[in-house]
Design goal:
254 residues; alpha/beta; Rossmann fold; five-stranded parallel beta sheet; 10 helices; 10 strands; 14% strand
Length: 254
């Protein structure tokens, strides 16, 4: 008897190479429109399916998980973070949850370096000025920005992405690196100093870069933390938005 392929429901449009391979291996139900699905639409799309493939834009909470048909045995998240998935609810239904750690390590580190340079050299401001037609020409002191070489990067969370970022800025930009991590980090392939507290990192860093997981009960950076930072410091967050108290950040920028 012919074997039936597992039925896989995908909530968003994925890269062509991924969808092509999925169609070879599975009976794939794809979202060609790439319009985010509502909970009801996900439930309808997953009827009779074995696997649900969500992304960070999908809220896979207990209410949705409780409504999943018994045929669903796996939630295979397209991405690293799983804070949008209720893991306890999935476990209660005996539904396995997987993610893709390591896939976007270098890409996220590249984006961090990009944002670091854009902020320090005021690239976005300059781009907007030129596009607006208001640029009046060069002058010696106009929008100079800040030199990054020799400055100190403070990394919060020295996991895969934190390490990739630190190595890039040390080797390419000549920066120094200090970091805070909940547990000791040893055997790094580059020179970086682990400080004992988050406060120590915030007080001495010229640039603070967050690489910690989201989904925590409280933000990592709150009002008191912004008060510790240098007035000239830059903050870069390529982690989840909820690791920063947004209201406190806005007030600190005023």
């Amino acid at each position: 008897m012919p074997q039936h392929k597992p039925v896989v429901t995908v909530t968003r449009t994925l890269p062509d190479v991924v969808e092509t391979r999925m169609m070879e291996l599975f009976e794939a139900r794809l979202n060609a429109s790439d319009v985010p699905m509502t909970s009801d639409e996900i439930i309808a799309a997953v009827e009779g399916a074995n696997v649900l493939v969500p992304t960070v834009t999908d809220k896979i909470d207990s209410g949705l998980i409780d409504r999943l048909p018994d045929s669903v045995k796996l939630i295979a998240n397209f991405g690293v973070g799983v804070n949008h998935i209720d893991l306890e609810a999935a476990n209660a239904r005996k539904i396995a949850v997987t993610n893709t750690p390591g896939v976007l390590t270098d890409d996220t580190a590249d984006m961090t370096v990009c944002l670091l340079l854009a902020a320090s050299r005021r690239l976005a401001e300059g781009d907007r000025l030129v596009r607006s037609g208001k640029w009046e020409g060069w002058s010696p002191t106009f929008m100079i920005g800040h030199r990054i070489s020799g400055k100190r990067l403070g990394v919060i969370g020295m996991g895969r992405i934190g390490q990739a970022t630190a190595e890039k800025v040390i080797n390419s930009l000549g920066m120094k690196v200090v970091f805070f991590n909940r547990s000791p980090v040893r055997d790094l392939s580059f020179r970086a100093v682990q400080l004992e507290t988050l406060a120590e990192v915030l007080k001495c860093a010229d640039v603070v870069s967050i690489h910690a997981p989201g989904g925590t009960k409280e933000p990592i950076l709150k009002r008191e933390h912004f008060a510790m930072m240098k007035k000239t410091a830059f903050l870069i967050n390529t982690a989840r938005g909820d690791v920063v108290d947004q209201r406190a950040l806005i007030n600190a920028l005023k």
